[in-house]
Design a protein that fits this description.
By secondary structure, this protein is mainly alpha-helical. Helix content is about 40%, strand content about 10%. Helix 1 packs across helix 3 and helix 4 packs across helix 6. The protein starts with about 30 loop residues before the first helix and ends with a strand.
Length: about 170
């Protein structure tokens, strides 16, 4: 079930648990109000942990706003750690079982664990992409996605010669 807002034109009220009086009057704050509405639905179990949020286009129809407005609202929720964007799949609500949805996420988690256990020391080079491909029996693209997560989160950094160094 998708939460519905009271739109500018007055079309359709949402389910009973939708915050009353959600009136999208100011374009500058539409995305914040949408984020608050979705945040409320997540908090009350309307979207339980592990569930997928509706598509951007469906949210656009439900809230009566442009895709950029929906994306700004979803970016706020991602920043709060409430949802996770999964390439080519959509956005999933965080907070449930932390089972990775993709192999690259599991590899990133494994490498992160090795760093925390001091099996990979700060300042040391990570194994090469080819070595990691063999170790995990996956493609180079999968390894690059895992390493990209670690780079983005500050666990590793790229140094001269495209070597990746443990930074934590």
């Amino acid at each position: 079930m998708v939460p519905r807002a009271v739109h500018k034109e007055g079309r359709g009220a949402g389910p009973p648990s939708t915050p009353e009086g959600l009136n999208l009057v100011s374009r500058a704050t539409d995305y914040r109000r949408i984020a608050d509405s979705l945040r409320s639905w997540i908090a009350t179990g309307g979207y339980p942990p592990g569930s997928m949020l509706p598509s951007e286009s469906r949210l656009c129809r439900e809230f009566g706003v442009a895709r950029t407005t929906i994306r700004r609202a979803l970016t706020l929720l991602e920043g709060d750690g409430l949802i996770l964007a999964i390439p080519a799949k959509g956005r999933v609500v965080q907070g449930g079982p932390t089972t990775p949805l993709y192999r690259y996420q599991a590899i990133a988690d494994d490498l992160r664990g090795q760093i925390l256990r001091n099996e990979l020391l700060a300042g040391a080079a990570l194994p090469s992409e080819a070595t990691l491909c063999r170790r995990y029996a996956v493609s180079r693209n999968t390894i690059r996605q895992a390493l990209g997560i670690l780079e983005r989160d500050g666990w590793v950094a790229v140094r001269q010669g495209c070597r990746r160094i443990v930074t934590l």
